[in-house]
Amino acid sequence: MIDFSQPNEHQYWTAVNDDVMGGISTGNFSYDGSVSQFTGELSLANNGGFSSVNRLLPPLTNDINAVNLSYIGDGRTYQLRFTTWKDGYRINYKHEFETIKGQQQSKTFYFNDFKAVFRGRLLSGAPELVAQDIKQIGLLIADKTPLPFVLKIQSVEFLNFK
């Protein structure tokens, strides 16, 4: 479990925004005194339009097949993302989720529902997402809405559903 009420959790997260490709969107992960939050502003200028944060994970056991995310959103659509490294290849997996402005929500994501992606495009023939291959967790916003965003994260819990 990742507990975002811990004041130092945000320090493990790194922002990657569209400026890596010439865009000017901003985003970061910070602590607001009670939880960590993913904040920033999307811009569509210079072919931009995404902001993300991610962190490395300790090894997960192979019996884990789902993750529960508790959050307070701003009414926008985000992606929960996992990165794997297997046989020398890095693959990103995404699952979109919608938020309701100001409302605390909790959603369970099953690993077999994640889609493999590369630079926003779906990959065909990618291996199924399995816990023991996951090296990184992330959040991304790319909803083509050039406005500020705020996603407060309360917890991430890895689960085993039989």
TrEMBL record:
Pfam families: CIA30 (PF08547). Keywords: Exonuclease, Hydrolase, Nuclease. Residues 2-153 form the NADH:ubiquinone oxidoreductase intermediate-associated protein domain. GO terms for molecular function: exonuclease activity. It comes from the Bacteria. Belongs to the CIA30 family. This is Putative exonuclease.
